[in-house]
Amino acid sequence: MNLSHFPEVDQFFGCYFNQDWNQEFSDWRAAVNSYIAETAKENVDKVLEELPGLISIIASTDAPLKLLHKLGCYFDPASEGLTVSVWLEMLQEVLAAK
Which of 10, 26, 72, 87 could hold 77 in an S-S bridge, CB 3.0 to 4.6 Å? Predict the structure, then answer.
């Protein structure tokens, strides 16, 4: 598993879903909306390009949350009754809608 294939996702997660993300944002959607408002469209598009590959890798790993942590993401989708894969798909939809 080569996480270097996801530089924009890594940047996005590290900035908006770091260990203190929930002190800055009310929920994950607020973090995503802030990212969209503050980020150039081309960077959002790059995240959208990388997400399908990440979703594919997540689907085949036994420790998806650990993989998210390696990418700097400390949001736990289980806190909202979601799997990591489902949350990433939702994240993709929210980003694509903007």
Answer: 87
What separation in angstroms does the CA of 91 have from each of 5, 28, 34, 94? 18, 9, 13, 5
Per residue in 34-78, pLDDT (tens digit) is 999 999 999 999 999 999 999 999 989 899 999 999 999 999 999
Question: pTM value?
Answer: 0.92
Cα 35 → chain centroid? 11
Angstrom distance (rounded) from CA 85 to CA 43 = 22
> CA separation (Å) from 41 to 14, 26, 48?
18, 23, 10
Give the list of residues 6+ apart from residue 67 with CB closer than 8 angstroms, or none: 1, 3, 57, 58, 61, 84
